[in-house]
TrEMBL record, chain A:
Keyword Manganese: no
Species: Parapedobacter indicus
Residue span, NADH:quinone oxidoreductase/Mrp antiporter transmembrane domain: 139-421
The organism's place on the tree of life at top rank: Bacteria
UniProt record similarity statement: Belongs to the complex I subunit 2 family.
Role according to the record: NDH-1 shuttles electrons from NADH, via FMN and iron-sulfur (Fe-S) centers, to quinones in the respiratory chain. The immediate electron acceptor for the enzyme in this species is believed to be a menaquinone. Couples the redox reaction to proton translocation (for every two electrons transferred, four hydrogen ions are translocated across the cytoplasmic membrane), and thus conserves the redox energy in a proton gradient.
A GO biological process held by the record: ATP synthesis coupled electron transport
Protein name in the entry: NADH-quinone oxidoreductase subunit N
InterPro entries (alphabetical): NADH-Q_OxRdtase_suN/2 (IPR010096), ND/Mrp_TM (IPR001750)
Catalytic activity line of the entry: a quinone + NADH + 5 H(+)(in) = a quinol + NAD(+) + 4 H(+)(out)
Subunit comment: NDH-1 is composed of 14 different subunits. Subunits NuoA, H, J, K, L, M, N constitute the membrane sector of the complex.
Membrane-topology annotation of the record: Multi-pass membrane protein
TrEMBL record, chain B:
Similarity comment: family membership: Belongs to the complex I subunit 4L family.
Keyword Glycosyltransferase tagged: no
Organism: Parapedobacter indicus
Localization of this protein: Cell membrane; Membrane
Record text on subunit structure and interactions: NDH-1 is composed of 14 different subunits. Subunits NuoA, H, J, K, L, M, N constitute the membrane sector of the complex.
Protein name: NADH-quinone oxidoreductase subunit K
Length: 498, 101
């Protein structure tokens, strides 16, 4: 046992020096504790108490994250647990934005409003998940990777099962929790081997890289494959995507919107951080690179082809989000150290589009009860604002100009092509071809919605209920943002490349 | 002193038994038991490797975190399975298939 007492003051100083960088997370922790208190005591007198506290906390934490954007990279925080570089700081801001949208979405949702247990606990869970997501985007130690993934996962299981109002919702939650726990157990087993090979938990450290290089290639490959399982579950790429369609279909719509965006932002950041922490010529890098390449190709193909057969809107969007995950992985491969602008732009645009689509789907469901594409027949002229916005978002998801989805895809394709010219890796050209091909395939299922809504007639009269919610307002704002970023992409790209 | 290999072999056996329990899918509770076995295999590995890490004790700390998180995940999973039972009157994953392609 080494003597720890003599240098305990230097260790404490090291911890204290890192704390200012973690100010947003500390704000969120305080908000989390306060939100539990308000949920128990304040909500009885003031129904919006927890909602107000949550919104204030997320905005405050997001504000601090924005203020920290221009600061230099702070590495080796808390003894090599975290690294706050520019990329990590941007993902923090992006996560805060998505969480804020989610809170507003829940607040306006009919199902959650009518729920007897109220939504106070959901807001507390969300704040804890938000902390986990922030840490996941900055983690450099396997311990922090595991803890943050579990924080996000456990919170997500609770969110999916929160309403438990009908059989399908509980089924989705059960599938999610069982599949997720198996994946994290496999990941933990892989991590234990990586630790054993290197004697070190910090995957950016020199000792870790040397340790991996000194291990038999087959063993490294096996351990990395196990770790890949855990990240794959969070990102839902093939072959760890089985839970996605069922969970997205069964979960309450706001939760589906959240699951299809926020964990992907943090997961992609984590994947990129692990991949680029290792030198290009090392075996571990090449192995991981090949794994990501192959699963990106299969993910894009399978996600888009399976979506063709779907008619249930949320299930179709689940497969579409699997397809987009393939695209995100392609963006990870194209990203070379320092040029994270393309990846961040794709992530921001993707989050906006997906949030918007689910907002519209929920709005339409709350007014007409339609959840299947065939039930959308003739609804277009009856609800023009909602459906025009919906179709614009679908156009953007396909990647047709003048929307920001087009710019995002164009930037990724350009980056992949540039990478191929630089390295001559034939895999990059295959990625490019598959990416273009699946964009065409996606056109067929996205356009089922405008086809049914505008060109087909409904038998009998359409029953449209009046509603008092501001869902359609937020959704329209996301459409505006998507269109504006399509015409002026420099607003975001310029910021990211500073 | 027991050599490291013995720990790893026991860990691998635990992991394999756990994986079998998960794949057999007889009962949701048994799947949870399988998951727990897999996590314990990993924890055993971490602690065994941690013996050789005399400076930071990373493996031991990791094991503690893993135990706590596994307990939290199991608590959530049991609550969810209880909800499933209320609707389906069964916890056999084979019977619960409203959601599928």
């Amino acid at each position: 046992m080494p003597q720890l007492l003599p240098d305990i003051s230097t260790k404490l100083d090291h911890i204290l020096a890192g704390l200012p960088v973690l100010l947003p997370e500390m704000v969120l922790t305080v908000t989390f504790l306060v939100s539990i208190g308000t949920g128990l005591f304040v909500d009885r007198w003031w129904k919006q108490g927890t909602f107000a506290v949550t919104v204030a906390g997320i905005i405050l934490a997001g504000g601090y994250s924005i203020l920290q954007l221009s600061q230099p990279t702070a590495s080796d925080l808390l003894f090599g647990m975290l690294e706050a570089d520019a990329f990590g700081r941007y993902t923090r801001v992006l996560t805060a934005a998505v969480c804020l949208l989610f809170v507003l979405f829940v607040h306006a949702n009919q199902g959650f409003k009518a729920h007897p247990k109220k939504t106070a606990d959901l807001y507390s869970i969300l704040l804890a998940v938000h902390i986990g997501l922030n840490l996941m985007g900055m983690a450099t130690s396997w311990l922090m990777v595991f803890v943050s993934i579990e924080m996000v996962s456990i919170g997500s299981y609770l969110m999916v099962g929160y309403l438990a109002k009908e059989a399908r919702q509980t089924e989705a939650a059960m599938k999610y929790v069982l599949f997720g726990s198996v994946c994290s157990a496999v990941m933990l087993y892989g991590l234990s081997f990586l630790y054993g090979f290197t004697g070190n938990l910090d995957f950016t450290s020199a000792a870790h890289i040397q340790g991996l290089a000194a291990t038999a290639p087959l063993l490294t490959a096996m351990a990395l494959l196990f770790v890949f399982t855990g990240i794959g579950f969070k990102l839902s790429f093939v072959p760890f995507h089985f839970w996605t369609p069922d969970v997205y279909q069964g979960a309450p719509t706001p939760v589906t919107a959240f699951l299809s965006t926020a964990p992907k932002i943090a997961g992609v950041a984590l994947l990129a951080r692990i991949l680029y922490a290792w030198p290009v010529e090392s075996l571990a890098y090449q192995y991981l690179h090949t794994l990501i390449l192959v699963s990106a190709i299969v993910t894009m193909l399978l996600g888009n082809l399976a979506a063709l057969r779907q008619t249930y809107v949320k299930r179709m969007m689940a497969y579409s989000s699997i397809g987009h995950t393939g695209f995100l992985m392609m963006a990870v491969l194209a990203y070379s150290a320092g040029e994270y602008g393309v990846l961040l732009f794709y992530l921001s645009v993707y989050s906006l589009m997906n949030m918007g689509v689910f907002l519209f789907a929920d709005y339409i469901e709350s007014r007409t009860g339609a959840t299947d594409v065939s039930e959308y027949n003739g609804l277009g002229p009856a609800m023009p604002v909602a459906f025009v916005g919906f179709v614009l978002l679908l156009i953007s998801l396909t990647g047709i100009p003048p929307t920001s989805g087009f710019v995002a895809k164009l930037l990724v394709f350009t980056a992949v092509f540039g990478n191929w010219q630089l390295t001559g890796n034939p895999g990059m050209i295959i990625l490019l071809i598959v990416g273009a091909l699946t964009t065409v395939i996606s056109l067929f299922y996205y356009f089922k919605i405008p086809l049914n809504a505008f060109l087909r007639k409904q038998e009998g009269s359409v029953d449209i209920r009046p509603t008092q919610s501001y869902l359609v307002l937020i959704a329209t704002l996301t459409v505006l943002a998507v269109l504006l970023l399509g015409i002026f992409p420099d607003w975001l790209v310029g910021t990211f490349q500073k | 002193m027991i050599p490291l290999t013995h720990f790893l072999v026991v860990g691998a056996c635990l992991f394999a038994i756990g994986l079998y329990a998960v794949l057999a899918r007889r009962n949701a509770i048994l799947v949870l038991v399988g998951i727990e076995l897999m996590i314990n295999a990993a924890i055993l590995n971490l602690v065994a490797f941690g013996r050789y890490d005399k400076t930071m004790y990373g493996g031991q700390v990791f094991a503690l975190f893993a135990i706590v998180l596994a307990a939290a995940a199991v608590a959530v999973a049991l609550a969810i399975i209880l909800n499933v039972y209320k609707f389906y009157r069964s916890v056999n994953p084979e019977d619960i298939k409203n959601l599928k392609d």
